[in-house]
């Protein structure tokens, strides 16, 4: 009696497999319940991490920089440079890790910027700077070097303002400074709060020179008396046997009346008080800044966030503090403007847009998978790879301290195609093997078939994944701003790809064992795949013999794209749709705060009449202890657009209005773009910056003026400005040594008298409750406002009475610099410019050529170009070098992956030649894919942005992956069936991989399609061009891999040592 065949054990996997991958696959299939439970648990944990992750619109892109500010009241820019900036620069330049030193010397203040190498720790850098600069000897009266608080890349988190028809600016400033600011500083994540106001309250003693002369007194006696009247000194304590009694003294002058009654001099005829020689009362300190809202005087608070803070959360905390005070301020007749500038709105909108695009793309991918496979089990297995891989990538990113931003989300969107492909390749091969097994006369255990099917494709997939990761390495290695912006995109892309590989090794086989092992008799080739394979096979049968048209078509495509790319414009980053603009306004050098505010009020009112504009707020000069010091001729107007306003139309309207104002120069930018420009050009916020470096101020100012004139003559040039224009009016006081000797005077007392008269002396502080009010001694306004009165200033001599300053010094009218800047130890004058053209690279090339033709550089003067175009060029050069290295690594990787394609009977030389041929054909898929990306970028605007270039690199990995799968599957068919390299083999290899290749391209396209459709929406400005390049490149990649590559592979893919045999799939089947 014949024995019946023993049915296969459904739980039989295989004998103990060899190799890490095989062992992991087998363990996942055997312990599928444990694997799936762990996957669910880890997915939940990762989802919770993603929910609580810090979000921002961009990664931290600011360079590692420590800013040091030193106050030097009364000193001119040249004096600040000589006495303060130069010693600090000399001390700081030798610090460990310092890459470059830049500085700015303004009237009364020095600002030093120390740029550190990327591998240093910023907190350590700040500690070393503080320790090093503390020992620098500075002139008397100069404040200590002060480190500016660390702020994030975006810097300002919110701007708010106060206006009132009932209260003056001094009272509003006091409320902002001493009521709102302390509570705002207590909000977690707030680094600093700057208060811009034209008036800061002080108790002032305004001395009458004629009264001093009548009483025979000098200003220094007034200074001393005022200091003694307002000084506060602790009295100590009184010890007793049982306790210690604290002595609390009071009685110093705290009001104008009390201070006016202070005795200045006692004589037999009576006493002379401060009130006899001066007017004592409350008055504003000399204005160093000012503000307006809608053209009306205001006080503005500029809240800056700490380095690494969450902008959205900090904004909520700040808004909560402001809202708590809204009612009490309104009761006092003060209006609170809490939304003058709020970048969190743009961040939230941008993140929602990108997140929605990512989710929509993922849903479209799942829909296509379901419609293509027409089996809920297979679709579920393939689709689950998306959330598992993306959540795992997000969890790792957050643990690394990376924020969730539009760049990281963009990387995840691009990775969707590869993520799905890992699962689809496994599932498609498992389905095919299970169908073959069900039809076999001696079927094997389904779990063993699943394991074998996974192992069959895993080697090729690992090599293909390695190729995908290799091509993204140049993005990970980008330096500077480009690296800080785009590296997170590459990190998220690489992590998602690695996570998908792990999912394919564990979760996919486990789910397949759970859902497909018992359904092998119900598995059929999906109708869409069957129809596509039949039609494609018939078309490929006709195309395969015609390798020459395929080669010509590929060459023509690549040549046309290369020619087109040469003529395309380039940009570093596209314009950002932030919903607001910053208008930088500059008047003539030396313009007063009042003149700047008056011009700003007229500009603000004109801009607010535009239908797109909601509100305009202006701040001019600088705030007290502001880290960004500007002259009184400089203003910034924050133009807030109405919700839904078209940014491009609004920008054109704003520039049209500004052209109608004479007497000022204007430059328009958006906030984040300006912050990036600042990072690129070390504080010069413009797309193009030309640094004129030299040692002599007059020389570099003259060259800078010539450069500015040339730039203004270029078509499309806008906002051309010399950053620190000369010509600030000044009076030079040159003390006469012989005259000083005749009058028995030394230079310093004379200078102190001049300082007291015009700059004023802060001699003390009085307190009104907890609010400190500075006490200032200064000459009366009539004595200070008239330049002719300078020579009449009376100087006290030791024995000869009073002498006019004109008899002690030569006073001449002159002009000087508004500020003096250094870069790398040299004086520098910068020329800033923008352009209306989208082709910034082309504009910079024109500027370089025009400057070279028309500007002759004197000896010792050099030019340095900085800005977005230079950053783009430097990035592309670095990418080109790194891509060459990656290509070398790719050749080795592809040689390893394709070496098995050589027929087993061929000689080693023939096998090596075959591998080299196939490596070349696989690499050719990269430029073939790039052609579509170039065509697509040209179609949507003719500009190849840096984001589009990064998209082309990602595209290269996908195209190489598909080509690798074709060759490795052809090699597998050769080994399994002992076939020759012929048309039947290639047709079968490509047809078998048709579904995986098309689905990879299709799901990648669908994943980024929402980004491309919202090309100019907030948050999609960078990923939009990248998505467009990907879509175009995927199309030409499919054309090459499915049609040109098989024909070229048939002709060149196999080196033959003898005439080919005629063994084919069909002949083998018929035999």
Account of the protein in words:
- It contains 34 helices and 33 strands.
- It starts with 19 loop residues before the first helix and ends with a helix.
- A hairpin with a 4-residue loop joins strand 8 and strand 9.
- The protein has a domain at 20-52 and 347-524 and 902-1056: Multidrug efflux transporter AcrB transmembrane domain (Multidrug efflux transporter AcrB transmembrane fold).
- The chain is 53% helix and 20% strand.
- The strands form nine sheets. Strands 1, 2, 3, 4, 22, 23, 30, 31 and 32 form a nine-stranded antiparallel beta sheet that branches. Strands 14-13-19-20-18-21 form a six-stranded antiparallel beta sheet. A four-stranded antiparallel beta sheet has the order 6-15-5-16, with helices on both faces.
- It is an alpha+beta fold and 1071 residues long.
- Residues 1-5 and 1058-1071 have low confidence and may be disordered.
Q: What is the secondary structure topology, with strand pairs?
A:
Elements: H1 20-30, H2 32-51, E1 65-71, H3 77-92, E2 98-106, E3 109-116, H4 122-133, E4 146-147, E5 151-164, H5 169-185, E6 190-196, E7 201-207, H6 209-215, H7 219-230, E8 237-239, E9 244-246, H8 256-260, E10 263-267, E11 270-273, H9 274-277, E12 278-284, E13 289-293, E14 296-297, E15 299-306, H10 311-331, E16 334-341, H11 343-373, H12 376-399, H13 406-439, H14 446-476, H15 480-505, H16 507-515, H17 527-543, H18 547-567, E17 569-571, E18 580-586, H19 593-608, E19 613-621, E20 634-641, H20 647-658, E21 665-669, H21 671-680, E22 688-694, H22 697-712, E23 717-722, E24 726-735, H23 737-742, H24 747-759, E25 761-768, E26 771-779, H25 781-785, E27 794-796, E28 802-804, E29 809-817, E30 820-823, E31 826-835, H26 840-854, E32 862-867, H27 868-898, H28 908-923, H29 925-939, E33 943-945, H30 946-977, H31 983-992, H32 994-1013, H33 1023-1052, H34 1065-1070
Parallel strand pairs: 7-26, 17-33
Antiparallel strand pairs: 1-3, 1-4, 2-3, 2-30, 5-15, 5-16, 6-15, 7-12, 8-9, 10-11, 13-14, 13-19, 18-20, 18-21, 19-20, 22-31, 22-32, 23-31, 24-29, 25-26, 27-28, 30-31
Helix pairs in contact: 1-2, 1-14, 1-16, 2-12, 2-16, 11-12, 11-13, 11-32, 12-13, 12-15, 12-16, 13-14, 13-15, 13-32, 14-15, 14-27, 14-30, 17-31, 18-29, 18-33, 22-26, 27-28, 27-30, 28-30, 28-33, 29-30, 29-33, 30-31, 30-33, 31-33, 32-33
């Amino acid at each position: 009696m014949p024995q019946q065949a023993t049915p296969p054990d459904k739980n039989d996997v295989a004998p103990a497999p060899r190799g890490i991958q095989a062992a992991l696959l087998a363990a996942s299939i055997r312990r599928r319940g444990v694997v799936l439970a762990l996957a669910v648990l880890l997915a939940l944990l990762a989802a919770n991490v993603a929910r609580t992750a810090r979000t921002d619109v961009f990664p931290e892109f600011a360079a590692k920089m420590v800013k040091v500010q030193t106050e030097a009241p009364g000193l001119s820019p040249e004096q600040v440079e000589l006495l303060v900036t130069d010693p600090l620069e000399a001390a700081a330049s030798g610090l460990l890790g310092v890459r470059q030193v830049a500085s700015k010397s303004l009237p009364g203040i020095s600002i030093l910027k120390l740029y550190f190498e990327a591998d240093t720790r910023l907190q350590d850098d700040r500690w070393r700077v503080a320790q090093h600069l503390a020992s620098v000897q500075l002139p008397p009266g100069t404040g200590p070097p002060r480190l500016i608080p660390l702020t994030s890349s975006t810097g300002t988190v919110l701007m708010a303002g106060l206006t009132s028809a009932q209260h003056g600016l001094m009272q509003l400033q006091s409320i902002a400074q001493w009521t709102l600011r302390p509570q705002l500083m207590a909000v977690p994540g707030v680094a600093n709060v700057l208060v811009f106001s034209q008036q800061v309250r002080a108790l002032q003693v305004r001395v009458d020179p004629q009264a001093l002369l009548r009483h025979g007194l000098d200003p220094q006696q007034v200074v001393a008396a005022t200091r003694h009247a307002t000084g506060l000194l602790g009295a100590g304590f009184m010890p007793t046997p049982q306790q210690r009694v604290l002595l609390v003294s009071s009685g110093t002058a705290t009001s104008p009346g009390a201070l006016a009654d202070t005795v200045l001099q006692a004589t037999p005829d009576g006493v002379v008080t401060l009130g006899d020689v001066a007017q004592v009362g409350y008055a504003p300190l000399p204005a160093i800044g000012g503000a307006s809202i809608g053209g009306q005087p205001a006080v503005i608070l500029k809240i800056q966030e700490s380095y690494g803070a969450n902008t959205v959360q900090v904004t909520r905390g700040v808004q909560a503090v402001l809202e708590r005070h809204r009612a009490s301020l309104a009761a006092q007749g003060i209006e609170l403007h809490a939304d003058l500038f709020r970048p969190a709105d743009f961040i939230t909108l941008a993140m929602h847009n990108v997140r929605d695009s990512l989710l929509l793309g993922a849903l479209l991918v799942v829909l296509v998978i379901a419609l293509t496979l027409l089996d809920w089990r297979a679709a579920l297995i393939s689709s689950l790879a998306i959330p598992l891989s993306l959540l795992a990538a997000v969890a790792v990113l957050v643990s690394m301290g990376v924020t969730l931003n539009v760049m990281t989300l963009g990387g995840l969107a691009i990775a969707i195609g590869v993520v799905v492909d890992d699962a689809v390749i496994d599932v498609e091969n498992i389905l095919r093997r299970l169908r073959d097994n069900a039809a076999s006369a001696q079927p094997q255990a389904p779990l063993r078939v699943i394991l074998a099917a996974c192992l069959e494709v895993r080697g090729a997939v690992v090599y293909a994944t390695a190729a995908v990761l290799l091509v993204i390495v140049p993005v990970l290695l980008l330096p500077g701003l480009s690296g800080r912006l785009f590296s997170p995109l590459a990190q998220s892309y690489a992590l998602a790809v690695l996570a998908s590989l792990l999912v394919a090794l564990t979760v996919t086989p486990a789910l397949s064992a759970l859902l497909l092992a018992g359904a092998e008799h119900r598995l059929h080739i999906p109708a869409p795949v069957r129809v596509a394979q039949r039609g494609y096979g018939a078309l490929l049968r006709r195309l395969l013999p015609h390798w020459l048209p395929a080669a010509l078509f590929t060459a023509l495509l690549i040549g046309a794209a290369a020619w087109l790319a040469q003529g395309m414009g380039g940009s570093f980053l596209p314009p950002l749709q932030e919903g607001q603009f910053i208008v930088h306004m500059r008047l003539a050098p030396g313009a007063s705060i009042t003149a700047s505010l008056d011009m700003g009020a007229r500009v603000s009112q004109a801009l607010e009449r535009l239908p797109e504009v909601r509100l305009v707020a202006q701040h001019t000069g600088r705030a007290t202890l502001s880290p960004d010091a500007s002259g009184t001729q400089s203003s910034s107007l924050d133009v807030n657009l109405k919700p839904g306003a078209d940014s491009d139309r609004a920008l054109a309207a704003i520039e049209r209005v500004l052209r109608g104002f004479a007497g000022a120069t204007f430059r328009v930018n958006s906030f984040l773009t300006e912050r990036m420009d600042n990072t690129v050009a070390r504080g010069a916020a413009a797309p193009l910056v030309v640094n004129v470096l030299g040692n002599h101020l007059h020389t570099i100012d003259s060259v800078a003026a010539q450069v500015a004139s040339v730039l203004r003559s270029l078509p499309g040039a806008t906002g051309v400005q010399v950053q620190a224009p000369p010509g600030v009016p000044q009076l030079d006081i040159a003390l006469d040594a012989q005259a000083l000797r005749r009058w028995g005077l030394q230079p310093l007392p004379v200078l102190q008298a001049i300082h007291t008269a015009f700059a004023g002396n802060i001699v003390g502080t009085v307190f009104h409750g907890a609010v400190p009010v500075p006490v200032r001694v200064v000459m009366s306004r009539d004595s200070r406002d008239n330049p002719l009165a300078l020579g009449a200033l009376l100087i006290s001599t030791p024995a000869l009475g009073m002498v006019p300053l004109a008899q002690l010094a030569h006073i001449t009218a002159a002009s000087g610099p508004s500020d003096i800047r250094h870069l790398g130890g040299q004086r520098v004058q910068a020329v800033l410019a923008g352009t209306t053209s989208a082709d910034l690279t082309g504009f910079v090339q024109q500027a370089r050529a025009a400057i070279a033709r028309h500007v002759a550089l004197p000896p010792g003067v050099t030019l340095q170009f900085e800005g977005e175009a230079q950053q783009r060029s430097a990035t592309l050069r670095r990418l080109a070098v790194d891509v060459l290295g990656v290509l070398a690594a790719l050749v080795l990787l592809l040689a390893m992956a394709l070496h098995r394609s050589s027929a087993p009977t061929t000689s080693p030389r023939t096998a090596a030649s075959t591998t080299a041929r196939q490596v070349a054909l696989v690499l050719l898929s990269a430029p073939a894919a790039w052609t579509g990306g170039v065509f697509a970028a040209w179609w949507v605007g003719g500009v190849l942005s840096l984001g589009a270039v990064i998209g082309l690199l990602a595209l290269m990995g996908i195209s190489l992956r598909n080509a690798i799968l074709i060759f490795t599957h052809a090699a597998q068919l050769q080994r399994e069936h002992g076939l020759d390299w012929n048309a039947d083999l290639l047709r079968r290899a490509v047809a078998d991989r048709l579904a995986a290749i098309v689905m990879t391209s299709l799901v990648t396209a669908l994943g980024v399609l929402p980004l491309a459709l919202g090309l100019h929406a907030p948050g999609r400005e960078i990923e939009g061009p990248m998505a467009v390049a990907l879509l175009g490149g995927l199309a030409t990649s499919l054309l090459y891999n499915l049609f040109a590559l098989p024909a070229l592979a048939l002709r060149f893919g196999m080196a033959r040592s003898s005439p080919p045999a005629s063994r084919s799939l069909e002949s083998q089947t018929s035999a």
